[in-house]
Amino acid sequence: MVDRNVAALPPRFERPGLLAFVLWVAAGALFVSALRGTGFSATEFVQGIPNIARIVGEMFPPSPDRLAKVGWALLETFQMALVGTAAGVVLSLPLAILATRHLTPHPVFYHASRALIALFRTVPDLVWALVFVVAVGLGPFAGTLAIMIDKIGFCGRFFAEAMEEADRNPQEALRAIGAGRVSIIAAAVLPAAMPSMVNTSLFSLEKATRSSVVLGLVGAGGIGIELQVSMELFRYPEAATIIIAIFVLVIAVERFSAWLRRRMI
Question: Among 252, 246, 151, 247, which Cα is nearest to 197's?
Answer without folding.
Answer: 151
